[in-house]
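WARN retry 2 of 3 for item q-0093 after timeout on previous attempt; input resubmitted unchanged.
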Amino acid sequence: MEPPAADLELPTASRDPSDRPPAPGRLRLVQALVNTVSRHHGVDLLGTPQDARRWLAAAGLLPPGQPLAESGQRELLELRESVRAVLEAHTHGTGEPAAADRMTMALMRCRLMVAADPAGAVRLRCADHDPFARAVGAIAIAIADSAAAGTWARLKSCPASDCGWAFYDRSPTGQSQWCSMQVCGARAKMRAYRRRRAAPPPS
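OK item q-0093 returned
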């Protein structure tokens, strides 16, 4: 299965806190996967196998009516959180080998191959016949395509412990850290201010 079309409406657990435009192209699929949970609102679109099946079908990754086993839901949750860990490293501008290894393991459910068409164009395709493995393959292809396009590193995860929302950083310098300066950024500044006020004066 190919990644869904870039203009497909992808379900997320809430609206973007800053009303940012979504990530470009098929990277929106990866962003939407991470944003299937809202810690602020206590909503998880992958909370049960039935929920996960509905999200995959709505995202164009699973045929309508295709069942999803509990193991598939667990694997999808692990994929979501492994991607979030990599996006957190993007936010901090540092490499994180453990996060990269975790995402690599989560994506091993699919088998990708290089396919060439008669015109000579080359692209990645999923070689699996299992519907869930093909869904994972579509996510892997979306990540690979965005890395090749240079957009992957700008998909980030809000570092607030009660957030983790994935956002696409369109700032000129690529230094945005918070999903919303008015929400998570302001809360972080207030916590830092309170810590400074509570700290004992220097002796």
